[in-house]
Design goal:
The structure holds 2 protein chains of 2 kinds. Chain A is an alpha/beta fold. Chain A is 44% helix and 18% strand. In chain A, the strands form 3 sheets. Chain A has a 7-stranded mixed sheet with strand order 11-10-9-12-13-15-14, sandwiched between helices. A 4-stranded antiparallel sheet of chain A has the order 1-8-3-6. A 4-stranded antiparallel sheet of chain A has the order 2-7-4-5. Chain B is mainly alpha-helical. The longest helix of chain B is centred in the middle third of the chain and has 22 residues, at 271-292. The chains are: A alpha/beta, B mainly alpha. Chain A binds chain B through residues 152-153, 155-157, 159, 161, 215-217, 219-221, 223-233, 235, 239, and chain B through 38, 41-42, 44-47, 49-50, 53, 126-129, 166, 169-170, 173-174, 176-178, 180-184, 408, 411-412.
Chain lengths: 508, 436
């Protein structure tokens, strides 16, 4: 029997009476317990296995919750006497006690004491679930609340005398070069290869300028040039970046990838569409220069790193999932899954018993991924779960994930502060089966495109050195375990992976 | 070349005994009220800190202002019991009457002394601007000096007082910024705190004790009262700059003793000291002199000429100015500055900062003395001569600060009041103001 017991307020005789009329049923993987829109379904008390609650989004079924042993499903429809709000599907072999709704209703009508205790139990259960619904107000806890970092304004950080003349000259040189190239292309006297080379040189020049003048020693010097502005180095960096941003904006925003990265149509940096665009690597843009600038950007380490990361992650996952595992399916979870390309690549040639859960807060992105899974005939092996990671980590999500063999997240640590990363790692540690592995990436402090991402794309990214990233593992549940650290080829992302210790008794 | 100030401090402790023991504390000590204030400003939106400071400088602080601001202004508005306004006035007039020579001696002898310690000059090396824009920095130092020395310059609400308080916040901001460097970190364990109490006191002594000594060497004469006035002026300025009372000297004798102790506690010059001195001697000091020389002509040469003599001065000024501003002349001025510096500070000191050999080392101090000493003699003999010397010196310094060589304006834009002296045939003093 499960440890969790939502009917803990019932007396023994209540419980006997309630379950006496129930039927114990088993469901096979992917079998629905009931469907969205079914007339008042029965009450299901889960005894073993996991079920997911699916709702349709854009024509695709997305998981919105996952329940395990001890949970009850069908309770909302039972209470309201309404049609089922979602489809409940067995994720694995499930055993459940099915309580006939009509019979329970008649018991409630005949015994007021039982009714009071029963409703109290359901009210407690629903109360727990209500907590998971966030009305847009951040809850005051360690994870999530600290993530809202106010960013200093771009303007007013530098006084007139603090703008370094070489920076001004460099940016002016970029603008002139771009104007000249536009005129040359318009005049039809430009050689395509040469134009592309000059675009690359000019744009690389801006990145070099940003890198040079947002280094902390340069910022100290800028700060010293007018001490009465009373600005700290990060504010001065924002001022330098803001200047370059303003001056180069009309040119860089002709690139489709840069513009999309900056605009963040769904409110997230590195959203699904942007990642998809980078992975496709097909330059697009407006005007004469747009496609050329886009081509330059797609060739920058920042974009190459995304493609490299997918490849490298797939290789690692393939290696780990190829190792002999215990009985039962091999479970893998991708946090903030994005395009989930590495999951699809893995499923294309991975072991047959592998099941993946892709969690993301972007329902639209998950719907696209779900459609892709169906196209590739992999829908039966992937669950797309719509949930906010901070909620899950804080234990607020209506989700039971069950023991996982691999949990990984590409890029999520880039947007979390240190304590949030430690919370995340602790949560992952709890999620992993003994011997399971975690893989996390973080933007490297030495990333060559750090300043461009921060100041032109305006991404509030947290960069870390290998030491800083490793220290977070040491502060988490993975303390004392060896953490392997690596970089992808472009030198933008750090890869850190670690294996949860198997219990001593289980060691061969 | 690495500098470790604590090693040389230990040597000084051996030499000076218990008296030097405290220096280690001061080498590590910044200025807590000012440090707290800039920490507050850094948390405010851009521009708010500077505006808050300007408002407080102009109108004082109210009870609702932040604690850090109130604590800082309580410190700077505190008037010490020993303050004597008459002595302050005498001190300022003593320096003003030295005119351009005061600036020249400061640039050629006091500042190289400040650069003598490799570690103490490190804060300046973190800004390559001191080398690239040495002229502007020297202009700022001169302006600070001038505003302090202006009549009533250190009275509350006067420009000199406000600038001094601003300079204190600038030191604190410099301290804060230097500690934020990671690529080129501030090595606190070796260098002490940036802009620490010991260095602040040493700089103040350069502007008082050393300046008096070096001005005497080029022919100026100071009475005991004048010396006391100068020391008093810098004692109060040091109080405003946040220097602890322990390091704030009341008399020249006291100052000389402390200065010797501090010099003994300093490490030697390093490559940075040499670079700083070179930029000062080759670029900034010649620019200062070149900017000051045309001002030696009577006022008519620069304004609307009156009479044939006025036209003559104007024509002479027009003739001289391009020649004075030429690179060849400035190069010679640079050699002159090296010579003057070596003449005042000695051959051994010059060798430690790798001064280039120059024939001016004998002639520059003698030449300056041959001009200054007779004028000083006249001043002392002629009734009202000192008042005239103050008026001429001040107007000349002010004229110099308004020349193009010192543009753009220093960051502490302030207005000084013209000297109310003396009745004469020429135009009023002060010239165009730079108030904001």
């Amino acid at each position: 029997m499960p440890n969790k017991n939502i009917f803990y307020l019932l007396t023994d005789s209540d419980r006997q009476l309630l379950f006496a009329g129930g039927r114990r049923k088993t469901y096979q993987r992917d079998q629905a317990l009931f469907h969205e829109g079914d007339a008042q379904p029965d009450l299901y008390v889960l005894l073993s296995g996991l079920v997911r609650v699916e709702r349709l989004h854009g024509g695709h079924a997305l998981a919105v919750a996952r329940y395990g042993p001890g949970d009850v499903v069908g309770e909302v429809s039972f209470l309201g006497g309404r049609k089922a709000l979602g489809t409940v599907v067995a994720e694995e072999d499930v055993e459940a006690d099915v309580l006939d709704a009509v019979r329970v209703q008649s018991m409630l009508a005949s015994d007021s004491g039982f009714a009071s205790r029963f409703y109290h139990c359901l009210a407690m259960c629903l109360g727990d679930r209500l907590v998971h619904i966030r009305p847009g107000i951040p809850l005051p806890d360690a994870f999530g609340a600290a993530g809202a970092r106010p960013r200093p304004p771009r303007t007013g950080q530098l006084s007139e005398r603090q703008f370094p003349p070489p920076l001004i000259e460099g940016v002016e040189g970029f603008r002139n070069a771009m104007r000249a190239l536009t005129a040359e292309i318009a005049g039809g006297r430009a050689d395509a290869a040469r134009v592309l080379q000059r675009v690359n040189e000019a744009c690389d020049g801006v990145v070099d300028l940003l890198n040079a003048f947002t280094r902390d020693d340069a910022l100290v010097e800028i700060g010293m040039d007018d001490l009465l502005t009373f600005r700290d180095a990060p504010d001065l960096a924002r001022g330098v970046g803001g200047y370059v941003f303003r001056e180069t904006f009309p040119f860089f925003m002709q690139s489709a990838t840069i513009a999309q990265g900056y605009e963040r149509p769904h409110g997230r940096a590195e959203g699904h569409d942007w990642l998809d665009r980078v992975e496709r690597n097909e330059p697009e843009g407006d005007g004469r220069l747009g496609p050329l600038i886009d081509q330059w950007f797609l060739g920058r380490p920042l974009c190459r790193a995304r493609r490299d990361s997918v490849r490298q992650t797939t290789a690692l996952l393939r290696e780990w999932t190829g190792e002999p595992a215990g009985p039962g399916p091999l479970r893998l979870t991708s946090l903030s899954a994005g395009t989930a390309r590495e999951v699809f690549d893995l499923l294309a040639g991975g072991p047959r018993g592998l099941y993946a859960t892709c969690i993301d807060a972007d329902a639209g992105a998950l719907a696209i991924d779900a459609a892709r899974a169906r196209e590739r005939r992999r829908a039966d092996r992937v669950t797309f779960l719509h949930a906010d990671l901070p909620d899950l980590v804080a234990g607020r999500g209506p989700v039971s994930l069950g023991p996982q063999h691999v949990v990984y997240a590409l890029g999520i640590c880039d947007y979390l502060n240190d304590s949030e990363v430690v919370h995340l790692l602790n949560w992952v540690h709890g999620l992993l089966a003994p011997g399971g592995r975690v893989l996390m990436t973080n933007r490297d402090a030495a990333s060559p495109d750090r300043a461009f991402a921060e100041h032109i794309l305006d991404w509030p990214v947290v960069h870390r050195t290998p030491d800083e990233f490793g220290r977070l593992f040491a502060e988490s549940g993975f303390a004392g375990l060896p953490v392997e650290m690596g970089r992808e080829e472009a030198g933008v992302n750090l890869f850190a992976y670690c294996r949860k210790m198997a219990p001593a008794s289980g060691a061969a | 070349m690495d500098s470790n100030r604590f090693t040389s401090l230990a040597d000084a402790c051996r030499k000076h005994g218990a008296r030097a023991d405290k220096l280690e504390k001061y080498l590590r000590q910044g200025d807590p009220p000012a440090d707290d204030l800039v920490a507050l400003f850094s948390r405010l939106p851009p521009g708010h800190g500077a505006r808050m400071l300007d408002r407080a400088l102009a109108h004082g602080v109210g009870p609702k202002e932040p604690d850090a601001l109130r604590a800082f202004f309580a410190a700077v508005e505190d008037v010490p019991l020993w303050l004597d306004e008459g002595l302050l006035d005498l001190g300022s007039r003593t320096y003003l009457r030295c005119g351009i020579v005061c600036g020249l001696v400061m640039a050629c002898s006091c500042l190289p002394l400040a650069y003598r310690s490799g570690a103490a000059s490190k804060p300046l090396m973190f800004s390559s601007q001191l080398i690239d824009r040495a002229v502007r920095r020297l202009g700022e130092t001169n302006r600070f000096f001038l505003e302090i020395c202006a009549p009533d310059g250190l009275k509350r609400h006067s420009p000199g007082w406000k600038i001094t308080v601003k300079v204190r916040t600038m030191h604190a901001q410099m301290r804060r910024l230097l500690r934020q460097g990671r690529t080129k970190p501030w090595r606190e364990a070796e260098w002490g705190a940036p802009v620490n109490q010991m260095d602040l006191a040493a700089t103040s002594l350069l502007f008082s004790v050393s300046q008096l000594r070096h001005l005497r060497r080029v022919g100026f004469h100071f009475t005991a009262a004048e010396s006391e006035g100068v020391m008093h002026l810098w004692r109060y300025a040091s109080h405003l700059l946040g220097i602890v009372p322990d390091l704030n000297c009341a008399t020249e004798t006291e100052g000389r003793g402390l200065q010797q102790l501090l010099f003994d506690a300093y490490d030697g010059p390093d490559d940075d000291s040499i670079r700083l001195t070179e930029s000062l001697m080759k670029i900034a000091a010649p620019a200062l002199v070149a900017a000051g020389l045309p001002g030696l002509l009577p006022g008519d040469a620069h304004g609307k000429p009156r009479g044939p003599l006025g036209r003559l001065f104007r024509d002479l000024a027009h003739f001289l100015e391009p020649r004075i501003q030429s690179n060849a002349f400035k190069e010679q001025l640079g050699q002159f500055c090296y010579g003057l510096s070596q003449g005042i500070l000695g051959r051994e000191f010059a060798a430690s900062l790798r001064y280039p050999p120059t024939a001016w080392r004998h002639t520059a101090p003698a030449l300056l003395r041959s001009v200054v000493a007779p004028l000083e003699a006249c001043r002392r003999l002629i009734p009202g001569g000192t008042r005239w010397a103050v008026w001429i010196g001040h107007s000349h310094l002010r004229h110099m600060m308004q020349t193009r060589a010192f543009a753009p304006r220093p960051s502490f834009h302030q207005l000084t009041q013209p000297v109310a002296l003396p009745p004469g045939p020429t135009a009023p003093l002060g010239g165009p103001t730079d108030a904001k």
